[in-house]
Amino acid sequence: MGWLSNLLGGKPAPMPLRLDDSNFQQEVLRSDRPVLVDFWSSTCAPCRQLEAVILNLAKDFDGKVKVCEANIETAPRICSQLGVQSTPTVVYFKSGAEVERVIGFRGSLYHRDIIENELLK
């Protein structure tokens, strides 16, 4: 923990877990918590917009929902298996099964609604 965190009494903000072809099954399909996976690419402008939304969701739902990110360049097998064809794509999983998919940029309230009404009920 850094000196500023000690001073303010806070803990570091949770960060999305990075996924690739080697850890997807363990971290997502076998997860005991609901999972949000943000599929992104480095050349995608809407992906950069969505980054702040994803970071806030990771912080706000820490311990309740596992928030993950997968760069399509380092996870081609996952993208192929799930049929991810464009970025950003956010896929929600519960008990190892896909329950919702959002293609393109959507704001924080849109994603919060899915989490609260699809994943946490």
Describe the structure using short key phrases.
Glutaredoxin, alpha/beta, 121 residues, single chain, 5 helices, five-stranded mixed beta sheet
Structure description:
The structure is a single chain. This protein is an alpha/beta fold. It has one domain (14-119): Glutaredoxin, CATH 3.40.30.10. Helix content is 39%, strand content 23%. The protein contains 5 helices and 5 strands. A 5-stranded mixed β-sheet has the order 1-3-2-4-5. The protein is globular, with a radius of gyration of 14 Å. The mean pLDDT is 92.
Strand tally? 5
Class of secondary structure makeup: alpha/beta
Could you state the oligomeric state of the chains shown? single chain
Architecture per CATH nomenclature, i.e. the level-2 architecture? 3-Layer(aba) Sandwich
- According to CATH, the fold-level topology is Glutaredoxin
Structural shape: globular
CATH fourth-tier homologous superfamily = Glutaredoxin
Residue share in β-strands: 15-25%
Mean pLDDT across every amino acid position = 92
Q: What ranges have pLDDT less than 50 throughout 5 or more consecutive residues?
A: none
Strand order of the largest sheet: 1-3-2-4-5
Radius of gyration: 14 Å
Gap between N and C termini: 34 Å
Largest sheet: 5 strands, mixed
Count up the helices.
5
Helix content: 25-40%
Structural domain count:
1
Instruction: Just give the CATH class.
Output: Alpha Beta
Secondary structure: elements and pairs:
Elements lengths: L2 H6 L8 E3 L4 H6 L5 E6 L4 H16 L5 E6 L4 H7 L6 E6 L2 E7 L4 H12 L2
Parallel strand pairs: 1-3, 2-3
Antiparallel strand pairs: 2-4, 4-5
